[in-house]
Specification:
alpha+beta; Jelly Rolls; seven-stranded antiparallel beta sheet; four-stranded antiparallel beta sheet; 18% helix; 23% strand; globular
């Protein structure tokens, strides 16, 4: 672990206007109207993902490729790209840390549903200042027919503030074994987030969202890159199985950051052993 005073990347050019940032804060999500990466850069990421997918152990579901950057530091070529950070900086400010990433790949025919949830519910107690922005990049086209994500606009600003109550559900058909209790959500207000490949959405970590199963003949894969301001502090004392990385700017909360040039297979093994997966 290292505690650098400055990040690997410092230059920025905002990709969101003040009006778009205001829309993000009001609705809890935003859809940029341009590709995330250049086509060549995106093709490189997709090719790298396909290689990871082909190496999955037979008993590992492709929806469960959580924190792949722990073992594949090559992913930082994309995660720390200015095209990504310049989307996040207008929302969180110039001092940014990577909180987590996750490939969630729903295979054709039997892709599992993602129950209604707030990401923040899985991180309760981990962050002092729960402000997380997720960049959800479509590796494949993400459409209604193959189980795209749905969000409930403005649900990040409810009284629960990202900590609804959850009920147990049958885990065999879903990515998570719990779901927000029905009385605390409004399924009818949900909006489908349909994306072409190399397009992305942004959403607040407290926003209620989920997705149906993929029973179509088309795979649906997305890559989530989750960022926090370095004014948020990671509680590593109670959560030793997680680590963050300084992406841009400088630290403000006394965090210790992992080295983005190194692999941490021991951390991944620790997480797997203790059942820390899928957020």
């Amino acid at each position: 672990m290292v505690a650098p005073t400055s990040s690997p990347t410092t230059s920025s050019h905002h990709r969101l206007t003040p009006a778009q940032v205001a829309q993000f804060h009001h609705e809890g999500y935003f859809l940029p109207d341009e590709p995330l990466f250049t086509q060549d850069k995106f093709n490189g990421l997709k090719d790298y993902f396909e290689g990871m997918l082909s190496d999955l152990e037979t008993d590992v579901r492709p929806e469960s490729m959580d924190v792949p950057h722990f073992q594949h530091p090559e992913l930082f070529k994309w995660v720390f790209d200015d095209q990504v950070l310049d989307l996040v900086e207008p929302i969180l400010g110039p001092d940014l840390a990577l909180f987590s990433t996750h490939f969630i790949c729903k295979p054709q025919g039997n892709g599992k549903r993602v129950p209604w949830h707030e990401d923040s519910a899985y991180w309760r107690g981990m962050l002092d200042i729960m402000e997380v922005v997720t960049v959800w990049l479509s590796i494949d086209p993400s459409k209604i027919e193959n189980g795209c994500m749905y969000v409930v606009p403005r649900s990040h600003n409810t009284g629960k503030k990202g900590f609804s109550d959850y009920d147990d559900i049958a885990k065999e058909a879903a990515v998570f074994p719990t779901e927000i209790t029905m009385t605390q959500r409004n399924d009818a207000a949900a909006v489908a987030i349909e994306l072409e490949a190399n397009r992305c959405s942004l959403h607040d970590g407290r926003l209620i969202h989920g997705s149906p199963p993929n029973t179509s003949s088309l795979r649906r894969c997305g890559y989530t890159m989750r960022f926090i301001s370095t004014r948020s502090r990671l509680n590593r004392e109670d959560f030793p199985w997680h680590q963050i990385y300084l992406a841009r700017g400088k630290d403000h909360a006394g965090n210790v950051y992992a080295d983005h040039t190194k692999a941490y297979p021991e951390m991944a093994r620790f997480r797997a052993k203790h059942g820390k997966n899928g957020h």
